[in-house]
Amino acid sequence: MTTDMLHTEDRKTIVREAYQAVTSTGGAVACKLYGDSQLSLVPAPARDMALGVANHMAFADIRPGDHVLDIGCGGGIDTVLAASSAAPDGVVHALDFLPEMLARTQRAAAEAGLSEVVRTAEGEMESLPLPDASVDVIVSNGVINLSPRKSRVFAECARVMRPGGRFCVSDITIVEEQLPPEVLVHPAAWAG
Ligand SMILES: C[S@@+](CC[C@H](N)C(=O)[O-])C[C@H]1O[C@@H](n2cnc3c(N)ncnc32)[C@H](O)[C@@H]1O
Questions:
Q1: Atom 11 in ligand 1: which residue has the minimum CA distance?
Q2: What is the DSSP letter of 97?
Q3: Ligand 1, atom 26: closest residue by C-alpha
C-alpha cells in the first residue's frame, strides 16, 4: 500500500465542498475587481458568483478567433469576457470540476448571447480534457493555488498550449515559512 503524502483526494474534497457551499457573492467581488465597461458585458449569474483574486482580463489580449481555456471558470465571469473578445469565430473552453459552476457559466453565456462561443467542460485542471496544442490563450483566476499538484497543472497547460500561446493568470501565493503549521494544514487554508 502507498501513502499519498500530498493528501490529494482529501484536499480536492475539501475544495469541492467549499465551492459547492458558495451560492452567491452578491456581486461584491466583481464590483471590486472589474471596471464598468467589463461589468456591462457580464450577466448577473456570472457577476454574482465572481470569486477571483484579481483582474487579468484587461491584459489577456484575447483576439477574435482565439481558442481560449479558462481553468476553474466558476460562475463564468472571465469566460464571458474572454468569449466577448474571441467571438464570433473563437472558442472558450470553460473548465471546472463542479457541474453547478458549469451550469451557471452556461446560463451566463446564454444571457450574453455567447452560447455558440462557450464550451463547458467538466474536468480537473491536473488532467485537462483537451488535445495537445489546441489553445492560444489560457486564463485562470484564483484556481491553481487550490491544486495539491501544481506542477502537474503547469505541465498540462504546456501540453494544450499552441506554440506562441499566452498564459495570463491571477493567483495567490504565500510564503509558507511565515505561517504556523496549524494554519498551513487547516482545511480553510487549502480551500482558499
Ligand atoms: C476561487 S474559485 C474561482 C472561480 C472563477 N475563476 C472566478 O474568478 O470567479 C475556484 C474555482 O475552481 C474550481 N476548482 C477548484 N479545484 C479544481 C480542480 N482541481 N479542477 C477544476 N476546477 C477546480 C472550483 O470549483 C471553483 O469554481
A1: 72
A2: S
A3: 74
The residues of the chain scoring below 50 in pLDDT are: none
Question: Scanning the structure block, which residue is given the C-alpha cell 465597461?
Answer: 37
Predicted pLDDT at 33: 97
Contacts of 32 (CB under 8 A, 6+ apart): none
Contacts of 79 by beta carbon, 8 Å cutoff, 6+ apart: 46, 70, 73, 92, 94, 105, 108, 109, 118
| Cell reading at 33 | 475587481
Residue whose CB lies within 8 A of the most ligand 1 atoms, among 97, 128, 130, 168, for a mutation test: 97
How far, in Å, is the centroid of ligand 1 from the Cα of 95?
8
- Between strands 118-122 and 161-170, the pairing is unpaired
Query: For residue 128, what pLDDT is reported?
Result: 98
Q: Which of 110, 105, 2, 121 is nearest to 50 (CA)?
A: 105
